Amino acid sequence: MKLSVPRRQSGATVVEMAIVAPVFLLILLALVEFSMMFFATLTMQYAVREGARYAITGQRNLDPNTGSQQRYAAVIASIKDNSLGMYDRLAPVISVNGKSYASTAYTSGMFGAPGSLIVLQLDCDWVVTTPLLSSLFSGGKYHFAVAATMRNEYFP
Hints:
Layout: H1 12-55, H2 71-82, H3 86-90, E1 93-96, E2 99-101, E3 117-127, H4 131-134, E4 141-151
Antiparallel strand pairs: 1-2, 1-3, 3-4
Helix pairs in contact: 1-2
């Protein structure tokens, strides 16, 4: 009785790796993008909360234009400062008390008077870049909204 000698399989590992590696990398990239979307949502929630906390004080000192300080510009500067760069990447639409404002239509009274209730909301879109995930979201974008509700302090 003769024992059979196993065939040489030196290239089998390389072929298996070539088949498995793209699938593994695609799943890994999808996981990284999911975590970035979650990070963006949490970061923007923190930023809108800090912006609302600043808005209720009635201050204007964060406005970069020191000649004509506006309350809305100071609140938006507070949101940008606390968003860790996500504000510019997401280009959110700001809504105050249910009314949406385009970036060119901000008004000095949009955050209300002393004692009034304000609801500050940001509507954001994250553009999904991973091919595996882009089919899961309509238009290849993950849409989310973050909001904070507070009552204005009695400021002068």
